[in-house]
Amino acid sequence: KALDRAVQEVEERPATGPVRLPVDRVFTVAGFGTVVTGTLVSGTINEGDTLTVLPEGLVGRVRSLQVHKQKTHSARAGQRVAVNIAGLEREAVRRGSVLTSPGAFSASRLLDARVFLLPTAKPLKNRARIRFYLGTAEVMGRLVLLDRDELSPGSSTYAQLRLEEAVVAARWDRFVLRSFSPVQTIGGGVVLEPVAERHKRFREEVLTRLRTLETGSPADKIMQQLGGAQVLLDTGSLAAATGLTPEEVVRLAGELAAAGQVKVLPVDHQLFLADTRFYEDLKQKIESLLAAHHQEFPLREGYPKEELRSRLLPHVPGRVFQALLQALSEDGVVTVFGQTVALPGAGRVPPPAAQKVLAEIAALYREARFQPPAWEEAVARVKLPREEAGEYLAYLLRTNILVKIGQDLFFHAEALQEAQDMIVGLLKRQGEITVAEVRDLLKTSRKFALPLLEYLDEKRVTRRVGDRRVLLKK
User: Fold this and answer.
1) Closest-CA residue to 86 (of 55, 115, 53)
2) Is residue 121 domain-shared with residue 230, that is, in the same domain?
3) Which of 56, 72, 100 is the last residue of a domain?
4) What tens-digit pLDDT sequence spans the chain (474 residues)?
5) Same domain for 472 and 370?
6) Given 100, 127, 148, which residue is the final one in a domain?
7) CB atoms within 10 A of CB 133
8) 20 to 30 A from 469, CA-CA: which of 68, 328, 374, 429?
9) Helices assigned H by DSSP within 171-313
10) pTM score, whole prediction
């Protein structure tokens, strides 16, 4: 009766979520290949699924399944399962390996945990050699005590397990510890961080983080991850890091955003979150960089997007950085162009000295009409330093004051439009035109007439037929 009551109180393992099956046996069956067995901890396995074997990093396809020696098309969490996997050699998998959904788990040799020592055990010194048992894995390692030099019998503390082989763990997994020699059970613990970084001992920030992971609210755990990362994190990564479900993270993201604690960025079908303090700090850095850029290059449209991303957030994908720039634009911090970013209003009006030079160059090309000077000639005539010439040319082209017709050949936009109108007018009257006729029409030379017609061909105003042009656009 006591067993019956206990069975009734056991919670059913979640059939949703990623597959996780610690392997306890591996063998081959003639005609079928490699078979692994174990108890399915979470998720559902179906015939035809692609699964990953960790820590080996191998990939295989589920050919067939058995549950308690009965063939089935699907197995749920909590069941004993035999999985026939195609694409894996028997020698490649071992007891202690874990069968998982691709990308759902990572193997690590460093784990942060709350460790308990049995009352009957001997005191455990820092860096003691231990045997670590999780799932079906048995791994040697050392126990690093993070806030003391020795763990007394019957007590617990935060520790880092530094293992000799990588294991697959999830937050809140329970494990067993045994002494190196003689082999005796001395305690156990709970995994708080399944993929940890190496810590220095007696660091208050490390201990605070572990306390939050262990006892903090779900919102606290999200904020801790965002504050520690100092980067944009998607809801899936936050779910994996905090042990929350993706749905919980999305709900909490909305609440934290409403409270002004996080900035939420929609990217495609995902949500990325940033700590508001990180976002504000990033705003200041971007404003400072852009202000310095505008000061140094007053004729440029703005700071190149990709260069800005590489400088500030090199590990953030381009699409996420674009969403960040859009958010900054909506907040009035920046103006976003095709390939550049600028402070609002910057670059629209050049400095007075630059305006004077730009006006002189524009006048040269406007007055020259259909026989414009070469760029080097124009630079010399306005006495513009050669090292600054590129900036001025880029500005004139970007603002459509000048239009590039060919190699080192630029027309004033008004002259180009006038020439196009004259050529189109003649084509409408006589149906076709030659280079010589364009030369005579514009009172210019072949040097300018031919590139002009080639430009109109490229813009699909005219089309070449032999040595003549016809009107393409009516």
Assistant:
1) 53
2) no
3) 100
4) 677 776 666 666 556 678 999 999 999 988 888 999 999 998 899 999 999 999 999 999 999 999 988 999 999 999 999 999 998 898 999 999 999 988 878 899 999 999 999 999 999 999 999 999 999 999 999 999 999 999 999 999 999 999 999 999 988 899 999 999 999 999 999 999 898 999 999 999 999 889 988 888 888 888 888 876 567 888 888 887 787 888 899 999 999 999 999 999 999 888 999 999 899 999 999 999 999 999 999 999 999 999 999 999 888 889 999 999 999 999 999 999 999 999 998 767 888 999 999 999 999 999 999 999 999 999 999 999 999 999 999 999 999 999 999 988 999 999 999 999 999 999 999 999 999 999 999 999 999 999 999 999 999 999 999 999 999 865
5) yes
6) 100
7) 18
8) 374
9) 204-215, 218-229, 235-242, 246-258, 276-296, 305-312
10) 0.62
Q: How many CB atoms are located within 10 Å of the residue 203 CB?
A: 12
Instruction: Assign residue 129 the CATH number of its domain.
Output: 2.40.30.10
Q: Are 40 and 75 in contact (CB under 8 A)?
A: yes
First to last CA, the chain: 93
Q: Is residue 468 part of a domain?
A: yes
Looking at the domain assignment, is residue 14 inside a domain?
A: no
Element (H, E) at 463: strand 462-465
* Same domain, residue pair 114 and 188: yes
Q: Which helix (H) or strand (E) holds 377?
A: helix 375-381
Mark whether 384 and 471 lie in a shared domain: yes
Would you call 64 exposed, middle or buried from its count of C-beta atoms within 10 A (0-12, 13-18, 19+)?
Answer: middle
The total number of residues written for the chain in this structure: 474
Cis geometry, peptide bond prior to residue 55 (ω within 30 degrees of 0): yes
Residue 401 and residue 364 share a domain:
yes
Q: Helix 386-398 and helix 352-368: axis angle, to 10°? A: 70
Helices 435-442, 413-430: inter-axial angle, 10-degree rounding:
120
Asked if the structure places residue 120 within a domain, the reply is yes
The verdict on 342 and 226 lying in the same domain is yes
What is the extent of the structural domain holding 75? 20-100
With respect to residue 2, please indicate whether it lies within any of the assigned structural domains: no
Residue with tokens 């961080």, as numbered in its chain: 193
Residue ranges with strand state E in 268-370: 270-275, 303-304, 335-336, 340-342
Does residue 88 share a domain with residue 172? no
CATH code, domain with 469: 1.10.10.10
Counting the structural domains of the chain, the total is: 4
